[in-house]
Amino acid sequence: MNTQALARISNLVVERGGRRLLDQAGLEAHPGSVHVLVGPNGAGKSTLLSVMAGDMPPSSGEVTWCGQALDQWCPHALARCRAVLPQENVVTFPLTAWEVAEMGRLPHRTPDRDARIVREALDRAGVWHLSGRDYRSLSGGERQRVQMARVLAQVHDTGPDQPGLLLLDEPTSALDVRHQLRLMELLRVDAARGRTILVVLHDLNLAAAYADHITVLKDGKVVASGTPAQVMRAETITHAWGVECLVEKDSLTGCPWVRMRYGLGCATAHREHAA
Amino acid sequence: MSTVASQIPATGTLSAPGSRSARARWVVIALIPAVLAAALLGLTTGAVEVSPAEVLWVLTGHLDDPFLREVILNLRLPRVLVAITVGAALAVSGVALQGLFRNPLADPGLIGVSAGAALGAVSVIVLGTTVLAPLVMALGVFTLPLAAFAGGLGTTWLVYRLASHGGHTSVATLLLGGIAINAIAGAATGMLVYMADDQQLRTLTFWNMGSLAHAGWTLWAVSAGLVLLALACMPLVARALNGLMLGESVATHLGFPVHRIKTLVVVMAALAVGASVAIAGIIGFVGLVVPHLLRLTIGPDHRYLLPASALGGALLLLLADALARIIVAPAELPIGLLTSLLGGPFFLWLLLRQKGRLG
C-alpha cells in the first residue's frame, strides 16, 4: 500500500466577496480509504472539494497531494492521477456517452489501450449499454453515471503502486436507490485498489455504511471528524443539521443507522395535528 | 467483469458503439479527392468552355494555347485558390470559435468577427492614403490582412468577454453581442464608405458582399500564409477543444492549460478570419454550416473535425463559386450573397430545432 498517496488540507481559509466560505478547515484523505464529506447546505463541502481539485486558490492554508503542494504539481501529471466529478455538467455538443467517457483518456497517451479502458469504465459505471446514445438525451442519473465512467477511465492506470485520487461531488445525487448502493460498492472496490477517495454525500446513512472516515462541515468549519461510529452521533447531527436524531444499529449491515425528524415528522402527525 | 474483459481483443481498435473515429478518419480522407474534383470543376466552369483534360494539360504545361492559358491560369486558378483558402479559413475558425464558446451557433459572421475584420480592412482602404499612410508605408502588403486581423481580434475578444462568465457562455449574450458588434462595425464602416471616393467605393462594395475575384497574387500569398499559420496551430488545440466540450473546469482537471488555449484559439481564429476577409470580404455562414453538417456525420471530435472542416469549407466555397458563375452566366453572383441566401435559412432551421435548448 502506498502511504504517500495522501491528500491533505490544513488550516484552509477561503474568502470570496467578503464572506468566509471555509474557516481553518482541514482533513486528511488516506490511500485505500473512502473519506466522506457531509454537512448542511452552504457548509463549504463543494468549496473544499474545489480547492482540492485546484479550481479555487485558497486565501490561506495548505493543500498537498502525495506530499507536494497542489500548485507545485505539473497539471498534466496531476490529470493522470486525479479525476474530478463535478456536481453538474452541461454539454452542448452531440457527444455520445462513449465519447464523454473517452474524454477521461485525454491526459494519457495510450491509444492502444484506450478503447478497452473506456469499455471497462462504462461497464463498471453500469452504462455500457448506453455507449452509442447521445449524452444530451440521457436522464440525469444516466448522465451522472456516464460522467463517473469518464472519471474511472481517467484514473484507470492508478492503483497500489501508482497514487490515484478521486474527488466526487455528490456522485449519488441523481441516482436511484440501487445505483446509489452500486456506486458506493464501486468506490469500496476502488479504495481496495489503493486509490484515495474523497466524496461529498448528503445521505448520512450511505456515508455511515460505506465511509472509512467522515468529516462534518458546518459554516466552513470542521465540527466532527472520525470513523462513522465516532461521528454519527445524535448530538453531532442535531448540532450540525438542526434535526432531532436517533442513532441505532442497522440490523442488516451492523453500521450506525441514523433516524431523523424535523417538526411533526410525518404525514400522520400532520393529519392528526390538522384534525 | 471478467466475462466482459475476455470479449475484448488484446490489441488494436475494437468496434465500440458510440465511437465514430473510424468513420471520421474515412470522411477526412474522402474529402481530399472531393476538394480536388471541385477545384477541377471550378477551373472548367465559366463563360469559356474548357474540358477537364484541357485544364490538366494547361496545368502541367503540355498545352500551349495562350488563350486557354490566360483563362485558366490567370482568371480561374486564382479564384479557385482564393475559394480554397477562404473556405478552409472560415470553416476552421467556425469550429474553433464554437469550441471556445462551447456553442455550435458561433459563426465568425454572426458574432461580429468578420464585421470587425472588415472594419479594419476598410479603414486601410479609405484612410490608407491619409491618416493611416505611415502604417501602410511600414507594413506594405501586410497592411490589409493585418488590419483585418486586428479588427477581428478586437471583436472576438470583446464578444468573448461579453458572453462568458465564470467558465460559462451565454448563447443569448453571445448572439446579442454579435448583433451589437455587427451594428457598430457596420456603422463605422458606413462612415468610412461615406468618406470614400469613387475608386474606393467600387472596392468597398465588393467587400460587403464578398467576392472571390482575384485580389492580386501578392495579397493572396500573404493571406494564404497567415491562414496556413492559423491552420497549422489548430492541431495543437484539438485535444484541448475536446476537453472544453465538457466545460472549462473539466478541461482544467484533464490537465489542459485552458487559459492559454483560449488565447491561442482567439488569436488564430481572428488571424484566419482577418486574412480571409482581406482577400474576399465578408462571406457568411460557411463557418456555421460546414462544421454543423460534419458534426452530424463524424461527431464533434476536433482531431477529425478540424481537418474535415478545412476540407469541407474549401469544398463548399468551390461549389458555391461554380454555382454563382452558372446561375447568372455570363455575369456572376457575389459569393457572399449566395452563401447568405443558402446559410440564412439553414441557420433559421437550426434555431427552430434548438428552440427549447437555448438559454
Polypeptide structure, described:
The complex is a heterodimer of chains A (275) and B (359). Chain A has 275 residues and is an alpha/beta fold. Chain A is built from ten helices and twelve strands. In chain A, the strands form three sheets. In chain A, strands 6-7-8-3-9-10 form a six-stranded mixed beta sheet, with helices on both faces. A four-stranded antiparallel beta sheet of chain A has the order 2-1-4-5, with helices on one face. Chain A has a two-stranded antiparallel sheet with strand order 11-12. In chain A, a hairpin with a 2-residue loop joins strand 9 (213-218) and strand 10 (221-226). In chain A, helix 4 packs across helix 5. Chain B has a single domain (83-98, 106-354), classed as Orthogonal Bundle (ABC transporter involved in vitamin B12 uptake, BtuC), CATH 1.10.3470. Helix content of chain B is 75%, strand content 1%. In chain B, helix 4 runs parallel beside helix 10 (217-244). Mean pLDDT of chain B is 85; it is low at 1-14. Classes of the chains: A alpha/beta (275), B mainly alpha (359). At the A-B interface, helix 2, strand 6, helix 3 and helix 4 of A face helix 10 and helix 11 of B.
Uncertain segments of chain B are 1-14
CATH A-level architecture of chain A:
3-Layer(aba) Sandwich
How many domains of chain B? The number is 1
Largest beta sheet of chain B: what is the strand line-up? 1-2
- Strand percentage of chain B lies at under 5%
The biggest sheet of chain A, with number of strands, parallel, antiparallel or mixed sense and barrel status, is: 6 strands, mixed
* Strand percentage of chain A: 25-35%
Give the integer mean of the pLDDT values of chain B: 85
- Mean pLDDT of chain A, to the nearest integer, reads 93
State the CATH architecture of chain B: Orthogonal Bundle
Query: Count the helices of chain A. How many?
Result: 10
User: Would you count the extended β strands of chain B for me?
Assistant: 2
Radius of gyration of chain B: 21 Å
Helicity of chain B, as a percent range: over 70%
The general outline of chain B is: globular
Considering the protein shown, what is the CATH homologous superfamily of chain B? ABC transporter involved in vitamin B12 uptake, BtuC
